[in-house]
Amino acid sequence: MTWFWTITFILSLLFLLPVPGRIIKKYTNFGLVGGFLVGLLVLFSLVNIFKVWSFPRYDFLTIAGFPLLLALTWLPLEIFFAWAFTQEGQWSLATLLGLPIITTIYHYYLLQRGLVIYHNWNLAYTLLMSLIIHIVLHFYLTSQVKT
Questions:
Q1: In this structure, are residues 74 and 38 in contact, taking their beta carbons and an 8 Å threshold?
Q2: Distance of alpha carbon 108 from alpha carbon 96, whole angstroms
Q3: Which phi and psi (to 5°) does residue 67 adopt?
């Protein structure tokens, strides 16, 4: 058993430090849906349906072959994404590209440590999938800001 996923979740909470409390409250539902639920869907489908990812080391909160806390890690990250996207200037482009790049670098680390195994999958697919997810979230946020 590893505590890696627990530590990862705790560290993801650091992304909330620059975000004002009222903004965290405003985007909590976005984080739940766009972060946690999308994370669950991605992890469940890639591990159990498509079988292109596997997690050989289990955490104390492992369900359906993947660490639940990994999905929960996306909640604060997507709250940060929503906050950074709505800031003026280049933050939105940097955030749109930055999170997929950080995700891919993180996956490289996971692969090197043996915490995730790819089967007929590679880091380019991870980058593309994360970019597509964040473009969709970007369009959702854009529609909410304009209304």
A1: yes
A2: 19
A3: -75, 120
Candidates 31, 8, 7; CA nearest to 19 is 31
For the chain, domain boundaries = 4-146
Whether the CB-CB separation of 63 and 9 falls below 8 Å is answered with no
Supply the pLDDT for residue 88. 67
Got the DSSP string for 5-39? HHHHHHHHGGGGTTS-HHHHHHTHHHIIIIIIIHH
What is the pLDDT averaged over residues 1-20? 92
Average pLDDT, the chain: 92
pLDDT at 90 over 60: no
**What are the beta bridge partners of residue 117?**
54
